[in-house]
Design brief:
The chain contains 19 helices and 14 strands. It is of the alpha/beta class.
Length: 500
């Protein structure tokens, strides 16, 4: 496209007319996870003429996507079940017939997991691309005719080159009838969990990176069914891949920055909410993503920054790598700082003490616990012998068992005098917060679920063992509700002594 500005509306109009002939009729998305499921549901909803197949090797997950009871979908996202109800079986299908659905598709989204490598070269930093590579090989083998392959997963810069090479290598060359062709695009996803449907329906921007104009416009025109053209950005493929990593790094950087300042606020008598408001009203800084909390979680921030660290080192830029690595180090330090602070306030020991944990998901409105701050904080407290009564509206016991590496002990729910027995380091999942607080020494709010801000603290305070502590790592408890209840209260980043 030479010197032309790809985002010039005039050019885009021209291109749309010129390439109207590429119309996508059949999409296959490989990976029915937190991105694949919601993204394809919204595409199916906005593009009723396109048949959308979401495939996954995980049969159990696919069966949950197909469950008649929409409360059993594998992913909880506000607004998702309503769309599934409307489109599933109409133009949206979930299946584990990966090969067949690849063969039928004219556009394939790769939306598989890209976690940090656990072993080998680059372990602990580089992305493990084995799932992406497997997809590329499957696509190369089973696709028919011309297929546009779209990177939806978050990938290291230059992955498109690897995908292209794999696709080229598996093409049959002799029989003309069987000849296949591919174009690879990068179309990273910017949705946040908990607001995924809103983010997909009203995106700040859609990013499409690629070299082939026809393919770019084919994808562009899918989004045009509901996204204004001015919000669709076209770049070269490497800028698109790198922009995704950069966006997450910048967002995570803001959280580590404000959490670092929060610790300083606690030490100096300042209040991080006031500091956030003061700096956020500067237009250049902006007010979003300045809430101090228990440290960022989620499957992506840490992995994407570590990937950036790996890439920077790989390209001989250790200073750049060190700069970004510090964001992750501070986040980890901050989470352990909270555990230590709780232990200190409870007279230096939590051994045999009952502590209620409110929230296990990494943020509100999701059942996702990946990299949740709750995992590190609960593990620290369990290691110190605390007895944890954990509440979360959406997270299931089996997930917490995996995350903590420890089985739930349901029996402890009914034991009256826990401190007298030998239950150190046990945990259970609770439903009724007020009843479960009976005899607890502390409550720690770790996820900002709305219901926690509406709790009846008068009732709760009656049940706690005094002197009792409430730790609010999300700043969601209204101070006036906790005032005069004979409770010790700590909240994140609050160094002021006028809380009551
Ligand atoms: P996920 O683990 O929830 O889902 C990935 C799915 O891919 C799994 O169900 C897995 O079984 C399936 N899969 C893996 N290899 C497969 C194969 N060869 N064939 C068929 N299925 C296969 O992951 P996710 O959270 O949806 O993330 C996917 C990608 O999107 C990652 O690269 C992530 O960084 C990126 N991303 C995630 C989010 C988010 O909010 N979770 C947001 C933006 C981008
Ligand atoms: C994040 C990005 O916001 C998305 O744009 C991106 O697509 C996604 O990662 C991804 O690539 O996976 P997500 O992790 O779902 O989305 O959720 P966020 O709202 O970004 O929250 C991440 C973590 O930061 C949570 O633990 C949250 O509680 C924490 N956070 C967020 C704060 O502590 N303070 C804030 O002000 C904002």
């Amino acid at each position: 496209m030479g010197e032309l500005n790809r985002n010039d509306p005039a050019l885009i109009n021209l291109e749309s007319q010129q390439f109207m002939n590429i119309t996508i009729k059949n999409i296959c998305c490989i990976g029915a996870g937190y991105v694949g499921g919601p993204t394809m549901s919204v595409i199916a909803d906005k593009c009723p003429d396109i048949l959308v197949n979401v495939v996954d090797v995980n049969k159990e997950r696919i069966e949950l996507w197909n469950s008649a009871d929409l409360d059993k979908l594998p992913i909880y996202e506000p607004g998702l079940k309503e769309i599934i109800n409307k489109r599933r079986g109409v133009n949206l299908y979930f299946s584990y017939e990966v090969e067949d659905k690849i063969a039928e598709a004219d556009m394939i989204f790769i939306s598989v997991n890209t976690p940090t490598k656990k072993k080998g070269f680059g372990a602990g930093q580089a992305s493990d691309l084995k799932w992406v590579e497997r997809c590329a090989r499957q696509v190369g083998k089973f696709a028919k005719g011309h297929t546009i392959v779209v990177e939806k997963s978050t990938l290291p810069v230059k992955t498109a080159e690897v995908i292209k090479k794999i696709l080229q290598a598996v093409q049959p060359t002799k029989n003309y009838q069987k000849k296949k062709s591919f174009n690879v695009l990068s179309n990273p996803e910017f949705l946040s969990e908990g607001t995924a449907i809103k983010d997909l329906e009203f995106p700040d921007r859609v990013l499409i990176g690629g070299e082939d104009t026809k393919s770019i416009m084919a994808l562009n025109n899918i989004y045009r069914n509901w996204v204004p053209q001015t919000k669709i950005i076209h770049t070269n493929i490497w800028s698109s891949e790198l922009a995704k990593l950069t966006a997450n790094a910048f967002l995570a950087q803001r959280i580590s920055s404000i959490n670092a300042i929060g610790a300083l606020c606690e030490a100096t008598g300042a209040d991080v909410r006031e500091v956030s408001r003061a700096i956020g009203s500067d237009n250049r800084i902006g007010s979003k993503f300045l809430d101090s909390g228990p440290g960022f979680g989620g499957s992506c921030f840490k992995k994407d920054i570590l990937n950036l660290v790996y890439l920077s080192n790989y390209f001989g830029l250790p200073e750049v790598a060190n700069f970004w690595e510090q964001i992750v180090k501070l986040n980890s330090w901050h989470q352990h700082r909270i555990s230590e602070l709780v232990i200190k306030k409870l007279f230096g020991t939590v051994s045999g003490k009952k502590i209620c944990i409110l929230g296990f998901a990494f943020k509100a409105n999701t059942n996702d616990t990946r990299e949740s701050a709750a995992i590190n904080i609960c593990n620290d407290l369990i290691a110190e012998g605390a007895i944890l009564f954990i509440h979360d509206p959406k997270v299931e016991s089996k997930q917490i068992e995996i995350d903590l590496g420890k089985k739930e002990n349901k029996e402890i729910k009914d034991i009256k005098n826990l401190n007298a027995g030998n239950y150190e380091g046990n945990w259970c999942l609770i439903k009724n917060i007020i009843a479960s607080c009976d005899g607890a020494d502390a409550i720690i709010v770790l996820t900002e679920w709305d219901e926690y801000s509406k709790l009846d603290w008068f009732e709760i305070s009656k049940n706690l063992r005094k002197p009792a502590w409430v730790f609010d790592a999300r700043s969601i408890i209204p101070i006036k509700k906790i005032k005069n209840l004979n409770l010790n209260f700590w909240r994140i980043g609050d160094g002021s002594d006028n809380k009551f």
